[in-house]
Amino acid sequence: MTRKKRKVIVRLTGGLGNQLFMYAAARALAIKLEATLYIDNITGFKNDRIFKRKFQLEHYNIEWKKAPRIYSFNFWGGRIVKRISKIIGFNLLVPSIKILMDFNHHLINDVIFPHYNNYYLNGYWQSSIYFEEFETILKKDLIINDTLSKYTQDILNQILSNDVTSIAIGVRRYDEVPPSIQIRGVHYVENVHFYNKSIDYYKNKYNNAHFFIFTQAEEWVLENIIANDPKYFTLVSSKKASSTVQDLYLFSQCKHFIIANSTLYWWGAWMSKNDNKEVISSKFFPNNKTVVEGWMTF
């Protein structure tokens, strides 16, 4: 008798950094279970009226199947069925699918050591503990399949130059998040002292240190960081970049990193293939297991 193929379904939502965490946790679980990975790339975006974020993982070398409506609760009355399913812990219409939620940023052991055949994941999953044993596989999955824009290629050439030790700085100010929906702890803003102390660390270590700054808060960066000593910095323009995916690719190509409490910049540092990379990270992530062991915090 042929055993039914196991299933892992993941609901994606948020920006690219969040999507990558969700995908990575689900991908790792699917590998452990030898299961088919289904992605719900619809329900987490269709009501995102403030940020208008979209599914972005099609730009990568990943293999997945679109989640059928019955798995993703994407049908008339699905929200009610999903609410009931969350309470009882399994899909009301497909009881063999165990539901796991991560909205409190606590490690959920069932993802690390699964006990069921089929899972539906909904939440943040913002820790490499969920997928660290599959790092090599994930880095192959996350090779971008886009043609690089001319601007991206020009910046890449500067990053890879033998004349500099390239250090990426990811600055997040959360200016794009309306005050009415900011969450204490989640939208914590690092002050200029964090960046200056981190920059000084690399300046003292590398004579040819050059910093590539990635941010949406360009004016703040120009006034508070670059103005101090412009020759050390290149501001990577979010207006000229062709996509967030290409921005993230550029970020990951630097040798070392300074990251705010941003999942996007976290992935830029994690995706680096430099075995000797150093990462200085904000410690103000909602999940206290987000910062990778061995990364520095100031």
From TrEMBL:
Q: What is its EC number?
A: 2.4.1.308
Q: Name one GO biological process term.
A: carbohydrate metabolic process
Do you know which InterPro entries this protein is assigned to? Answer: Glyco_trans_11
Per the record, its GO cellular-component terms are: membrane
A matching Pfam family = Glyco_transf_11
Which GO molecular-function terms appear in the entry? galactoside 2-alpha-L-fucosyltransferase activity
Question: Which keywords does the record carry?
Answer: Glycosyltransferase, Transferase
Q: What is this protein called?
A: O-antigen biosynthesis glycosyltransferase WbnK
Taxonomic classification:
unclassified sequences, metagenomes, organismal metagenomes
